[in-house]
Amino acid sequence: MPDKSEPRTPQQRQSSSRNGLPVGTGEKSDKQSIEQFIHQVRSLPTGGGGQGRLVFALDATASREATWDQACDLQSELFLATRDLGGLAIQLCYYRGYGEFKATAFVTQTQQLLKLMNGVRCLGGITQINRVLQHALKETRAQPVKAIVFIGDCCEESIDPLCHSAGELGMLRTPVFMFQEGNDAHTKAVFEQVSKLSGGAYAPFDRSSPQLLKDLLSAVAVYASGGVKALKHFASQSSPEVKRLTGQIR
Fold first, then answer.
1. Any residues with CB less than 8 A from the CB of 125 and at least 6 apart, and which?
2. Looking at CB atoms within 10 Å, which of 45, 167, 175, 231 has the fewest?
3. Global model pTM greater than 0.70
Protein backbone atom coordinates (compact mmCIF):
# COMPACT_ATOMS: atom_id res chain seq x y z
CA MET A 1 0.00 0.00 0.00
CA PRO A 2 1.11 3.62 -0.47
CA ASP A 3 3.07 5.42 2.22
CA LYS A 4 1.05 6.18 5.34
CA SER A 5 1.91 9.85 5.32
CA GLU A 6 -0.91 12.38 5.57
CA PRO A 7 -2.59 13.30 2.27
CA ARG A 8 -1.28 16.54 0.82
CA THR A 9 -3.51 19.57 0.53
CA PRO A 10 -3.63 21.47 -2.78
CA GLN A 11 -1.51 24.18 -1.15
CA GLN A 12 1.11 21.68 -0.09
CA ARG A 13 1.21 20.10 -3.52
CA GLN A 14 1.55 23.54 -5.09
CA SER A 15 4.63 24.20 -2.99
CA SER A 16 6.28 20.83 -3.58
CA SER A 17 9.54 20.95 -5.51
CA ARG A 18 11.95 18.93 -7.58
CA ASN A 19 15.64 19.86 -7.65
CA GLY A 20 14.82 23.04 -5.76
CA LEU A 21 12.38 24.32 -8.38
CA PRO A 22 8.67 24.88 -7.61
CA VAL A 23 6.30 22.38 -9.15
CA GLY A 24 2.77 23.47 -10.06
CA THR A 25 -0.28 21.24 -9.98
CA GLY A 26 -1.74 22.39 -13.29
CA GLU A 27 -4.71 24.57 -14.01
CA LYS A 28 -7.83 24.22 -11.88
CA SER A 29 -10.64 22.31 -13.53
CA ASP A 30 -13.25 24.38 -15.29
CA LYS A 31 -16.49 23.52 -13.46
CA GLN A 32 -18.63 24.49 -16.41
CA SER A 33 -16.68 22.16 -18.72
CA ILE A 34 -16.97 19.31 -16.22
CA GLU A 35 -20.74 19.79 -15.94
CA GLN A 36 -21.07 19.84 -19.72
CA PHE A 37 -18.99 16.66 -20.02
CA ILE A 38 -21.07 14.85 -17.40
CA HIS A 39 -24.24 15.90 -19.22
CA GLN A 40 -22.85 14.44 -22.46
CA VAL A 41 -21.83 11.17 -20.83
CA ARG A 42 -25.28 10.71 -19.30
CA SER A 43 -26.74 10.66 -22.81
CA LEU A 44 -24.35 7.94 -24.05
CA PRO A 45 -25.56 4.43 -24.87
CA THR A 46 -24.44 1.95 -22.22
CA GLY A 47 -22.31 -1.03 -23.11
CA GLY A 48 -23.99 -3.41 -20.69
CA GLY A 49 -22.15 -5.72 -18.34
CA GLY A 50 -22.22 -3.51 -15.26
CA GLN A 51 -19.33 -1.75 -13.55
CA GLY A 52 -16.04 -1.66 -15.44
CA ARG A 53 -12.68 -2.40 -13.81
CA LEU A 54 -9.80 -0.15 -14.82
CA VAL A 55 -6.12 -0.34 -13.84
CA PHE A 56 -4.69 3.17 -13.52
CA ALA A 57 -0.90 2.75 -13.66
CA LEU A 58 1.69 5.48 -13.33
CA ASP A 59 5.44 5.89 -13.39
CA ALA A 60 6.13 7.40 -9.96
CA THR A 61 9.85 7.98 -10.44
CA ALA A 62 11.33 11.38 -9.69
CA SER A 63 10.72 12.98 -13.08
CA ARG A 64 6.97 12.44 -12.77
CA GLU A 65 6.24 14.58 -9.70
CA ALA A 66 4.41 17.37 -11.53
CA THR A 67 2.23 15.05 -13.60
CA TRP A 68 1.39 12.91 -10.58
CA ASP A 69 -0.05 16.03 -8.96
CA GLN A 70 -2.05 16.74 -12.12
CA ALA A 71 -3.45 13.21 -12.05
CA CYS A 72 -4.51 13.74 -8.44
CA ASP A 73 -6.39 16.84 -9.52
CA LEU A 74 -8.11 15.12 -12.48
CA GLN A 75 -8.95 11.64 -11.24
CA SER A 76 -12.17 12.60 -9.41
CA GLU A 77 -13.79 13.51 -12.72
CA LEU A 78 -13.42 9.91 -13.94
CA PHE A 79 -15.89 8.66 -11.35
CA LEU A 80 -18.34 11.49 -11.98
CA ALA A 81 -18.22 11.08 -15.75
CA THR A 82 -19.00 7.37 -15.76
CA ARG A 83 -21.48 7.06 -12.92
CA ASP A 84 -24.48 6.71 -15.24
CA LEU A 85 -22.67 4.22 -17.47
CA GLY A 86 -22.39 1.70 -14.66
CA GLY A 87 -19.46 3.39 -12.96
CA LEU A 88 -15.84 2.39 -12.53
CA ALA A 89 -13.79 0.39 -10.09
CA ILE A 90 -10.24 1.73 -10.31
CA GLN A 91 -7.03 0.16 -9.08
CA LEU A 92 -4.05 2.44 -8.56
CA CYS A 93 -0.79 0.85 -9.65
CA TYR A 94 2.65 2.48 -9.60
CA TYR A 95 6.38 1.86 -9.40
CA ARG A 96 9.24 3.94 -8.05
CA GLY A 97 12.55 3.81 -6.23
CA TYR A 98 14.63 0.63 -6.06
CA GLY A 99 12.34 -2.04 -7.49
CA GLU A 100 9.29 -0.86 -5.55
CA PHE A 101 5.95 -1.81 -7.10
CA LYS A 102 2.54 -1.25 -5.52
CA ALA A 103 -1.04 -2.07 -6.48
CA THR A 104 -4.01 -1.08 -4.35
CA ALA A 105 -7.41 -2.69 -4.04
CA PHE A 106 -10.06 -1.61 -6.55
CA VAL A 107 -11.94 1.43 -5.28
CA THR A 108 -15.20 2.98 -6.42
CA GLN A 109 -15.21 6.35 -4.67
CA THR A 110 -13.37 9.55 -5.54
CA GLN A 111 -12.08 10.18 -2.04
CA GLN A 112 -10.71 6.65 -1.75
CA LEU A 113 -8.55 7.06 -4.86
CA LEU A 114 -7.53 10.60 -3.96
CA LYS A 115 -6.34 9.48 -0.53
CA LEU A 116 -4.31 6.67 -2.07
CA MET A 117 -2.68 8.93 -4.64
CA ASN A 118 -1.94 11.71 -2.18
CA GLY A 119 -0.19 9.19 0.07
CA VAL A 120 2.48 8.56 -2.59
CA ARG A 121 5.76 10.45 -3.04
CA CYS A 122 7.75 10.09 -6.24
CA LEU A 123 11.22 8.54 -5.90
CA GLY A 124 14.06 8.09 -8.37
CA GLY A 125 14.37 4.71 -10.07
CA ILE A 126 14.20 2.85 -13.38
CA THR A 127 11.05 1.89 -15.25
CA GLN A 128 9.07 -1.28 -14.50
CA ILE A 129 6.50 -1.20 -17.28
CA ASN A 130 6.54 -4.94 -17.89
CA ARG A 131 5.81 -5.48 -14.24
CA VAL A 132 2.70 -3.34 -14.69
CA LEU A 133 1.62 -5.42 -17.70
CA GLN A 134 2.28 -8.72 -15.94
CA HIS A 135 0.26 -7.53 -12.97
CA ALA A 136 -2.59 -6.53 -15.29
CA LEU A 137 -2.51 -10.00 -16.84
CA LYS A 138 -2.86 -11.59 -13.42
CA GLU A 139 -5.78 -9.30 -12.53
CA THR A 140 -7.72 -9.81 -15.75
CA ARG A 141 -7.29 -13.59 -15.61
CA ALA A 142 -8.87 -13.52 -12.17
CA GLN A 143 -11.66 -11.12 -13.19
CA PRO A 144 -11.85 -9.20 -16.48
CA VAL A 145 -10.27 -5.74 -16.58
CA LYS A 146 -11.89 -3.48 -19.19
CA ALA A 147 -8.87 -1.23 -19.77
CA ILE A 148 -5.41 -0.29 -18.55
CA VAL A 149 -4.13 3.26 -18.47
CA PHE A 150 -0.39 3.83 -18.25
CA ILE A 151 1.17 7.28 -17.91
CA GLY A 152 4.93 7.64 -18.21
CA ASP A 153 7.73 9.58 -19.82
CA CYS A 154 10.44 6.96 -20.34
CA CYS A 155 11.15 3.29 -21.10
CA GLU A 156 14.42 1.71 -19.94
CA GLU A 157 13.42 -1.92 -20.63
CA SER A 158 13.85 -4.33 -23.52
CA ILE A 159 10.97 -3.99 -25.96
CA ASP A 160 10.49 -7.74 -26.63
CA PRO A 161 9.15 -8.77 -23.18
CA LEU A 162 6.88 -5.71 -23.20
CA CYS A 163 5.47 -6.65 -26.59
CA HIS A 164 4.94 -10.25 -25.48
CA SER A 165 2.97 -9.12 -22.42
CA ALA A 166 0.97 -6.66 -24.51
CA GLY A 167 0.10 -9.41 -26.98
CA GLU A 168 -1.16 -11.61 -24.15
CA LEU A 169 -3.38 -8.78 -22.95
CA GLY A 170 -4.67 -8.36 -26.49
CA MET A 171 -5.67 -12.03 -26.58
CA LEU A 172 -7.63 -11.44 -23.38
CA ARG A 173 -9.27 -8.34 -24.91
CA THR A 174 -7.75 -6.03 -22.32
CA PRO A 175 -6.48 -2.95 -24.19
CA VAL A 176 -3.64 -0.81 -22.87
CA PHE A 177 -3.84 2.96 -23.33
CA MET A 178 -0.30 4.34 -23.28
CA PHE A 179 -0.04 8.07 -22.57
CA GLN A 180 3.42 9.57 -23.04
CA GLU A 181 4.57 12.72 -21.32
CA GLY A 182 7.12 14.45 -23.54
CA ASN A 183 8.45 13.47 -26.95
CA ASP A 184 11.27 10.95 -26.48
CA ALA A 185 11.43 9.00 -29.76
CA HIS A 186 12.38 5.61 -28.26
CA THR A 187 9.63 5.84 -25.65
CA LYS A 188 7.13 6.72 -28.36
CA ALA A 189 8.08 3.66 -30.43
CA VAL A 190 7.73 1.32 -27.44
CA PHE A 191 4.44 2.81 -26.26
CA GLU A 192 2.97 2.58 -29.76
CA GLN A 193 3.93 -1.11 -30.02
CA VAL A 194 2.46 -1.96 -26.61
CA SER A 195 -0.81 -0.18 -27.35
CA LYS A 196 -1.16 -1.73 -30.82
CA LEU A 197 -0.47 -5.30 -29.71
CA SER A 198 -2.93 -5.04 -26.83
CA GLY A 199 -5.68 -3.54 -28.98
CA GLY A 200 -5.45 -0.21 -27.19
CA ALA A 201 -4.20 3.22 -28.23
CA TYR A 202 -1.29 5.64 -27.81
CA ALA A 203 -1.33 9.39 -27.27
CA PRO A 204 1.29 11.96 -26.24
CA PHE A 205 0.53 14.86 -23.93
CA ASP A 206 2.26 17.94 -22.58
CA ARG A 207 2.31 18.57 -18.84
CA SER A 208 1.54 22.23 -19.56
CA SER A 209 -1.87 21.20 -20.95
CA PRO A 210 -3.81 19.43 -18.17
CA GLN A 211 -7.01 19.78 -20.21
CA LEU A 212 -5.61 17.38 -22.82
CA LEU A 213 -4.72 14.78 -20.19
CA LYS A 214 -8.21 15.19 -18.72
CA ASP A 215 -9.80 14.57 -22.13
CA LEU A 216 -7.69 11.46 -22.74
CA LEU A 217 -8.38 9.97 -19.31
CA SER A 218 -12.08 10.72 -19.64
CA ALA A 219 -12.17 8.95 -23.00
CA VAL A 220 -10.69 5.78 -21.49
CA ALA A 221 -13.12 5.98 -18.56
CA VAL A 222 -16.02 6.17 -21.00
CA TYR A 223 -14.62 3.16 -22.89
CA ALA A 224 -14.17 1.11 -19.70
CA SER A 225 -17.74 1.85 -18.60
CA GLY A 226 -19.67 1.93 -21.86
CA GLY A 227 -17.58 0.13 -24.48
CA VAL A 228 -16.57 1.09 -28.00
CA LYS A 229 -19.94 2.56 -28.99
CA ALA A 230 -19.95 4.88 -26.00
CA LEU A 231 -16.37 5.97 -26.72
CA LYS A 232 -17.12 6.69 -30.39
CA HIS A 233 -20.13 8.77 -29.38
CA PHE A 234 -18.02 10.68 -26.89
CA ALA A 235 -15.19 11.16 -29.39
CA SER A 236 -17.55 12.58 -32.01
CA GLN A 237 -18.13 15.53 -29.70
CA SER A 238 -14.62 15.81 -28.32
CA SER A 239 -11.15 17.07 -29.25
CA PRO A 240 -9.07 15.95 -32.27
CA GLU A 241 -6.70 14.13 -29.87
CA VAL A 242 -9.57 12.00 -28.54
CA LYS A 243 -10.74 11.27 -32.08
CA ARG A 244 -7.22 10.05 -32.96
CA LEU A 245 -7.17 7.89 -29.84
CA THR A 246 -10.51 6.31 -30.74
CA GLY A 247 -9.40 5.63 -34.30
CA GLN A 248 -6.59 3.36 -33.09
CA ILE A 249 -8.80 0.91 -31.18
CA ARG A 250 -9.55 -2.30 -33.01
1. 61, 62, 95, 96, 97, 98, 99, 100
2. 45
3. yes
